[in-house]
Design a protein that fits this description.
Blueprint: E1 8-13, H1 16-25, E2 32-37, H2 43-49, E3 54-58, H3 63-76, E4 82-86, H4 91-99, E5 104-108, E6 115-117
Parallel strand pairs: 1-2, 1-3, 3-4, 4-5
Antiparallel strand pairs: 5-6
């Protein structure tokens, strides 16, 4: 049996509706450990318990909050990729988030539940 420390860690940070959709896309596996944070304010604190392999961050939060949190997170955990997830993608928002430290931005389609790259 794989322990939680040995599993591939994914931290989902965002509003319940979007994170539930993302969670359903991730295959249930004994090899994946999901962590949740309801707001970017709790992101760094949540990571202190267990550093994930990747972070999926809800891009619909206030821009100033995202900029602040990404800046702090990047300073402390530069090796952890952060993917911003959005239901719609404006190229200006994508550029801004990537300048602030997001590794990439992904758009989650409203129908069909498939991920598509926004960049």
């Amino acid at each position: 049996m794989t322990t939680a420390r040995n599993k591939f860690g994914i931290l989902l940070c965002g509003k319940k509706e979007l994170m539930e959709r993302v969670r359903k896309l991730i295959m249930a596996s004994d090899e994946i450990h999901l962590q949740f944070a309801s707001t970017p304010k709790f992101l760094t604190g949540r990571v202190m318990f267990r550093v994930p392999h990747i972070v999926l961050l809800d891009a619909s939060f206030d821009r100033e909050l995202l900029v602040e949190v990404l800046g702090t997170f990047r300073q402390q955990f530069p090796h952890v990729p952060v993917f911003a997830i959005a239901t719609s993608a404006d190229h200006r928002d994508v550029v801004e988030l990537m300048k602030c430290g997001a590794t990439d931005c992904r758009r989650l389609q409203e129908t069909g539940g498939r991920r598509q790259g926004a960049t």
